[in-house]
Amino acid sequence: MDTTSGTSTGSRTPTSTRTGTETAPDTAGLHGVRHLPGEATYERARTGYQRAHAHRPEFVLAAADADDVRAAIEHAAAHGTSVTTQIGGHGLAAALEGGVLVDLSALRTVEIDPAARTARVGGGATWQDVLDAAAPHGLAPLSGSSPHVGAVPYTLGGGFGLLGRRHGYAADHVRAFDLATGDGRTRRAEPAASDELDRELFWALRGGGAGGGIVTAMEIDLVEAGEVYGGCLYADLDAVPDALDRWRRWTSTVPDDVTSGVAMLVFPDVAGVPEELRGRHVVQVQVCVADPDGEHHVAALRETLPAVRDTMARWALRDSGAMFEEPERPHAYRSRAVTVRELDPRALARLTKAAGPAAPAMCVVGLRHLGGAFARRPRHPSTVAHRDAGYLLSVLSPVRPTSEATEAEVRALHAELLAPFEEEVLGTCLPFSFGPATAEEVRGAFTSADAVRLTRVRAAVDPDAVVLPNHPLSPE
Fold this sequence. Notes:
Elements: E1 16-19, E2 22-25, E3 33-35, H1 40-46, E4 59-62, H2 66-78, E5 83-85, E6 100-103, E7 110-113, E8 118-122, H3 127-134, E9 139-140, H4 151-156, H5 164-167, E10 174-181, E11 186-189, H6 196-208, E12 213-221, E13 223-224, E14 227-236, H7 243-251, E15 258-266, E16 281-289, H8 299-304, E17 309-310, E18 313-316, E19 333-340, H9 345-354, E20 364-369, E21 391-398, H10 407-418, E22 425-428, H11 439-443, H12 448-461
Parallel strand pairs: 4-6, 5-6
Antiparallel strand pairs: 1-2, 3-4, 7-8, 8-12, 9-13, 10-11, 10-12, 14-16, 14-17, 14-18, 15-16, 15-20, 19-21, 19-22, 20-21
Helix pairs in contact: 6-12
């Protein structure tokens, strides 16, 4: 899921000019189209997939190019306000109040170099844009299971892709970033940049967030991939109460070609839910095998996990958005996520019971198998931490207005669910932590040394904290 760009700290007050009896924003020096509150285009731009809250900017600037993005940052700095952007809005944690929201939807160009197996991806492009452009060449990006999220923000968070155990994090395959930073400059961050700060930005942006700026384009490696084998196995937890542990044991036997995860939830008994899942406490095992003829890797899983629904098949990667049958309707939700060394079977049993039908609020438990190429060190060091983690664990709950659960109730439930895993926790996983996080939780996503280094890089490129942070970071 994508996140709102921005990583610096600070708060600002928007500035307006008065025209007659109406208050209108001062937009002198901006060339992009401006959209004001009350306009349909304003509402579409500020409202994303996350509906727990939304940006409320003074105006939306529809950027036509990188110069418009830089001008928006300069405008915000000159008027003592903030600037940010969003594409899908899945990971929105900090909403903009006042200031400038930059709409990057016009920056969706994707250029493929088949010979070099690379892509230049515009800052507003989704992974579906990249998949569609790369597929005719037998190539694919290291995208995730929701290709309608933004390619750039996904990558800035590290990127846990469908082919991750074979190829590693999406961030490991970036060649360069073009961005506008909070100091009003345009920069190219790459490992061979002549400016040391641009080299530091290349390190910081791969896994550390936007780093005090807005990325307008990135250049990435592609991999040879057209089809995969994958889909879902659904099992009824009343019939297989130890399903999570059965999946855990199976993951210890699979090669790096197999990337998998689990979603555990209670399906509502309502129309629209498949009959075999209605009203049941279900575990959904999600599998993607890098080999389209990889059905044999799933045979042992099928044997140990009797399925009430089986969607395993060959899939074209460009159609991967349907592979795991994820919800597409926007809603309000909160989550916490951590990386862990191992999964204790006793903790998994407690988790299954505590997140089941008797839980005080609905909770979707997520597990992802890491290891493989996720554990390998990239050619160029990055901020992605906890590479020795065996698994990713997340807990997500709908909140008001999607459900009756309050933020406080959900926070308490999530703390209870994660407590049995505390001894194995390595740190926070921010890309799957949807909602405000404490300073300690944000620092926990990085090593102590990297947290200090990141704050220095961000302060260097955004000294006045113009770019709104999604997860503010400060060293201890």
